[in-house]
Please model this.
Amino acid sequence: MSYLNETHDPALQSWVASANVADNGFPIQNLPFGVFRRTGGDEAFRPGVAIGDQILDLAALAALQPWTDAAGEALQACASEKLNGLMALGQTHWSALRLALSRALRTGSTMQSALEPLLTPMSQAQMSVPAHIGDYTDFYISLNHATAVGKQFRPDNPLLPNYKWVPIGYHGRASSIGVSGQQFRRPVGQTRPPEDGAQPGFGPCQRLDYEFELGIFVGKGNQQGDRIPVDESESHVFGLCILNDWSARDLQAWEYQPLGPFLAKNFASTISPWIVTLDALAPFRAAFERAATDPQPLPYLQAKNADSAAFDIDLETLLATERSRAQGVEPAVIARSNFKDAAFWNVGQLIAHHTVNGCNLAAGDLMGTGTLSGREAGQEGSLLEACQGGKKPVALPWGEERTFLEDNDEVILRARCSKPGYPTISLGECRGMVLPAKG
Amino acid sequence: MSYLNETHDPALQSWVASANVADNGFPIQNLPFGVFRRTGGDEAFRPGVAIGDQILDLAALAALQPWTDAAGEALQACASEKLNGLMALGQTHWSALRLALSRALRTGSTMQSALEPLLTPMSQAQMSVPAHIGDYTDFYISLNHATAVGKQFRPDNPLLPNYKWVPIGYHGRASSIGVSGQQFRRPVGQTRPPEDGAQPGFGPCQRLDYEFELGIFVGKGNQQGDRIPVDESESHVFGLCILNDWSARDLQAWEYQPLGPFLAKNFASTISPWIVTLDALAPFRAAFERAATDPQPLPYLQAKNADSAAFDIDLETLLATERSRAQGVEPAVIARSNFKDAAFWNVGQLIAHHTVNGCNLAAGDLMGTGTLSGREAGQEGSLLEACQGGKKPVALPWGEERTFLEDNDEVILRARCSKPGYPTISLGECRGMVLPAKG
Model:
């Protein structure tokens, strides 16, 4: 079997035994980056890399100064509470560090005894948002989602004329982004009045929803005024995570014209703790295809790598409720889809578009893909789509049903890549829970 | 004449002589905060307070530890490259520092000889963005502007039904905010095709505009999930500056549906370097009035201080061009208006609205008011309004005319408060220049 470089050799095994368990998701071929500390401790958060069910402390490893050259420089940038320093170094450094970590963690490595004391079990770790997020942008790259939601907000005009030309995006709120496990109060706000001119409604959101997105962490940025060409744009991406863009549909419907969503989104957004690099995802690249009837993108959005610009990542949404937890029932799978089937624009195009006007990106910036929905029933990336705007409740196996989220509901988003002959690469899990509105 | 407290006594004079010159704008009654360093030096930026044509170095003053209690704590927070630490302390500390600075800088102060070496002439200083801006929000509070622009984007439906109920806002880009003197490349991007389905245009923006806004710097923030009640909200505001929200109208018209402006705005925004505190603006408070035919706001937006929730601030827009500079002609005034006449929502309402859903604000966050336009001709806050969407060019006294901005045009925004018997309080100047698009 051929592979891209030695870090992708499917036969590689780690001296961390749990990394070799089938489908554990964090094999030595993955090596995602996050920020953690021991639960209950008062030590500072620090960067780590996931290996099996363990986390290797990169700040502590940096103190040992095991490497020189690019890998060593990249490691020194991990002597920090966030990953921004590492992110800013760029692709060459990321790949060098990945290779050095792969060699250090593999079976037979002479570094095993030095590294064993630097492991923390994931079960004893608390995770944090892995980077200082300077700016957060949310895109809207799923044609299926745009069409389905468009139908509900604008029945006569679901897909606007710009959709197939412009990777539609808008700025979101960085301050309210939390890491998996985030709990937040149901937002309160204004809702559309029964008729124009009447007093709007006011109170806790009645149509609270999740949105399954992937998050794209920017690595190396660009100077203001410069653009990042589409053929270089992927090298500016540090990696991907899962993102839940919680949405208050009733607040959104009333506030969003003419300047876009605001309070309907900015109360909370949740990301998974591990950033899986594009290096780790390389074996799951796929052709990026548009329908023959769709227009070709403008030249600044045409990359040479279209035959491999998509990523084959399975997405799975689960829901747990107060009742399911009380009954000891497992969370229910309510949707399954795949990134490559859901995306009308690819990662490189988003970076090229974002900077075509000279807008400056910085290490640690986060971009959401927008809700990722497949074409078929059961592939929806939000309840709004699954319940057809509230008309068709989603049945849960323990006897409840949902149109929108109720208090104490927990949404669990999972993403992973798998194919025969290669270890499963997990993006981990993004959990978040709705608490009752503040009284 | 009565005054609010001793810092507002109009008879106060400073031992910095230039602060006592009539209409100099930075008298001892102003004391705005900024961040500066000596031009050409390689020292770090540090906080300073403007007094006359001088800047008092607050980081150096902090090293002298002249005060204890709240003023001393506030001063110690200025031993930093940005104002975020001071901002986070809250109103009590800001007022204490203002009082201590007022006493130290006034004629007869025993601190004069200690402070004189800590002055830098403004003419020898380079200014910087005064805070780390975590999140930037842009509002849309001018009914006149919303109506005038709405007419151009939606002739049949200029003012949407939510406008008089919801303080419309959206998130903007923090990374591209620069300080007065900013120069930026004309943005490039897509424009609406001649007909739906045809290929969009692509190239340098042809309808580049300025927007005269005020910027509101958040001081003390709130915890995620908590709201800031409208009657407390002004105490979370550190102060105001001038903001130019540069806008690419042709890019905006094509991209903004359904999620709002994006590349049309995020290439650059410019702020004035001095933040004038609400304390300094207190003598210029005015009644905040709505027309009798307008609805009363919902209870969460009804503040008890409506009789003083507006600020009487004169706004003036000037334009200089390559030709005017070559001819040695002064920049031309192209519009004049006033904050209190232009605003349909007040500062406190914006903070209360932004947090009603639990969204967390942080020290250093910036909010734009949105374009501030008066009702009459000559009071427009943008060229789009002044030239009626390109139909009626604005004549310049040196023989040129403008519909939108041309390369090397410089826009100069000024704001100040004046009334009989009180020294003029200036918000300073916000200058920015358009460079040609990158080839």
User: Anything to note?
Assistant: The CA atoms of residues 165 and 338 of chain B lie 23 Å apart. Chain B has two domains: 6-128, 136-435. The mean pLDDT of chain B is 96.
